[in-house]
Specification:
The structure is a homodimer.
Chain A lengths: L2 E6 L7 H16 L3 E6 L5 H12 L5 H25 L4 E4 L6 E3 L8 E4 L2 H8 L3 E5 L2 E3 L5 E3 L4 H12 L4 E6 L20 E3 H9 L6 H10 L3 E5 L7 E4 L12 H5 L4 E16 L5 H11 L4 E8 L5 E7 L4 H14 L4 E14 L9 H11 L6 E5 L2 E7 L3 H11 L7
Parallel strand pairs in A: 1-2, 1-9, 2-6, 3-6, 9-11, 10-12
Antiparallel strand pairs in A: 4-5, 7-8, 11-12, 13-15, 13-16, 14-15, 16-18, 17-18
């Protein structure tokens, strides 16, 4: 009997009807002869309700208590999904993160899974139960409740699939797969049947909805992940190791030759420029160490020679983090005696991603030429082996997606 | 430093303002130099909301899953109370039933506390924390979440007070104490400064709002329990052992002489009559054993000789239980060959309670005379050492309360 892990997000569980619909899908997987572990998020909107409640009490809630509060959302949905499964005649049982043995570090509100003691889950599967587990939560060694932060239920699902050696982790959501680009920007965008882990990791880091953390875990343990819609019966997109012998590739010969796989966009970007630094060793560390300590992640960093032998730095942060980043950088900049510090918004990152790019030159030139022809200025450029990213004006980014989608003919399965 | 356990009900925690108000009261107790453990119920109305949610999925929810669902309500309120305490500058931490070490039997939805492993609670108190614990819930030996059933948070509070050897358990609610009668029925009703455990136990069993189980635990361990309002600063009513040397009685000399302490009313009553039984040994067992197995509690039982050498039985059950009780009794009655079985509603129990009654005769006669004078028929009578109960017409019971309150002059501190 094969073991499948399924994960359902909050929008798929927003009311009793949707819970019933999800339960029918789970029951089908069970009746096809699989063992099924289900990971659920909180019912759509319920987490916001809890955050609002806390907001009525305090502006700066304690993160440990916030985790106690937020963890209740997933408990509610896992109990309700089990009830719905039981009305369909299925044997099912709910488990909290704690009961499912999900141990985390102590980083409240952004905890990381440290280990999974899956004895109870296995026991319940052996009894013939569908096991429905509260996602997004775990427990520390000292028995305190934690939550995993954004995208945490995906991480729970993938980590459980890895631990239980599931044949597949199926992530059901409100989109029906991974596309060549956001269909809202590029009407000709096309769903991909499959994508490789490293491609997906770049997409996730550069704008796609999934959290990179869950892709990293899937990649590390080789868990095939299917992204599909909870509302339709479409085939979705399978994220897997391209050359994995145990998971036969569904990629057509044409797809194998297609070197750009998908275009990602991230509008949550701000740029900080630190100008006129009298360069000496340790300057970069002086700026970036306090940012790292404050958990502000810095993305594109560009350093260039300024006037009169000084150096300029510019780097991007999440737009949400701009205020707190400036608060950290400004005193440091003063101390090291630089000319000016400024923050700017209204920017977006556009990336082309594809494993095929690493052994075929000319993609960057083709990308820059296409954007320039469309009068779209490129602010900064950064690349990985399988990705090229340009920072452009936020107002131009949707046009840029269309231009690049056409340039690389992503609507065609070549 | 004295340890106090406080318990707040759902109505006292119904919104952010009330939670802030409760927190100020808790902070005051802490600042007076006490260690404070707080037990909270779910926010008013939230439990009903969860029950409704389950009702949209199924008519007969699994009791284990219902416990998972319902236990979330108390987690929400304990996290919010801690946040409110922290805004007041207090050190506080929330604990779930599981984290507080509250172990129960496996009786889902009506579990009984089996033991309390209070190490974590003591650790947190030692760290200077106010410890806010989710009431009404516990965990079984196999780590399944249970709820304690009606009045469960009171039981949590009293059991914790006993285990932690608290000087007092304070139960804050929407009434400001125990009265000589329900003030809605008897306008002259008067709050009692104190009452003895066994009196309170009779009142609780015969109509007062508290669950007998929590009084039993308090009595067994000698925990003084204060019932008071969460909204006002009134002194409340202290439930304690009258002759307890360690808790000096606040009872005035006048109150000591007052033999009827309070009048209790219970309208949740139905009567089942089994008539014309050919009496032989084992008949009573044949009727009452299956009721006990079905968890239907039977209260007043009267057996009398019927016509032609047969026997009649009548007994009361909770009105809520009438339907299920009849379903059990009817086939049994058929089997033992009785003439008829019938159920009737529209009844109420009225009881006078007082420890002073046990060594002073004449109370029963005085009660019956007063009711008869007011043209109130007594259906059945039952007594304990410190209680006399009459079954009367439900429509007459409020008048009966007024009559008896006057007869025994309960408005006066004699």
């Amino acid at each position: 009997m094969s073991l499948i892990v399924q994960k359902y997000g909050g929008k798929s569980l927003a009311d009793a009807d949707k819970i019933r619909q999800v339960s029918r899908r789970i029951a089908t997987a069970r009746e096809q002869g699989n063992q099924v572990v289900v990971v659920v998020s909180a019912m759509g909107g319920s987490t916001d309700g809890l955050i609002q409640l806390a907001g009525q009490i305090t502006d700066s809630p304690d993160s440990r208590e916030m985790d106690v509060l937020l963890s209740t959302g997933e408990l509610v949905s896992c109990a309700l999904v089990v009830m719905a499964l039981q009305t369909l005649g299925e044997k099912a049982i709910s488990l909290s993160g704690f009961q499912a043995g999900i141990r985390t570090d102590t980083g409240h509100r952004k905890a990381k899974i440290a280990s999974i003691a899956s004895d109870r889950v296995k026991q319940e599967l052996d009894k013939g139960n569908i096991v429905v587990i509260a996602g997004f939560q775990g427990i520390t060694d000292s028995m305190d409740i934690t939550t995993l932060g954004r995208g945490g239920s995906d991480t729970t699902a993938v980590a459980l699939a890895a631990q239980l050696e599931a044949v597949r982790c199926e992530i059901y959501t409100d989109v029906d797969g991974i596309y060549t680009a956001n269909p809202k920007f590029a009407p000709k965008a096309r769903r991909l049947n499959e994508i490789e882990y490293d491609e997906m990791l770049e997409l996730a880091s550069y704008g796609a909805k999934m959290e990179p953390r869950s892709i990293e875990i899937a990649m590390h343990y080789g868990v095939p992940v299917l992204i599909a819609s909870s509302l339709t019966e479409g085939p979705g997109t399978l994220i897997h190791r391209g050359a994995d012998m145990t998971t036969p590739s569904k990629r057509t010969v044409g797809e194998l030759r297609q070197h750009v796989r998908s275009i990602a966009v991230d509008k949550n970007v701000a740029e900080i420029a630190v100008l006129g630094i009298n360069d000496r060793p340790g300057i970069a560390a002086a700026i970036f160490e306090p940012l790292a300590e404050a958990n502000v992640s810095v993305d594109i960093i560009v350093s260039s020679s300024g006037s009169e032998g000084t150096t300029d730095f510019s780097f991007t942060v999440k737009e949400d983090d701009l205020k707190s980043a400036l608060k950290i950088v400004e005193p440091v900049a003063k101390e090291i005696g630089c000319r000016s510090v400024s923050g700017s918004t209204g920017l977006a990152k556009i990336s082309i991603v594809g494993t095929g790019m690493q052994d075929a030159p000319g993609y960057a030139a083709k990308m820059f030429r296409a954007l320039s022809k469309a009068n779209i200025n490129i602010d900064v450029i950064t690349t990985s082996e399988i990705r090229i990213t340009c920072l452009v004006d936020e107002n131009k980014v949707e046009e840029a997606v269309r231009v690049l989608h056409d340039t690389f003919e992503l609507d065609k399965v070549k």
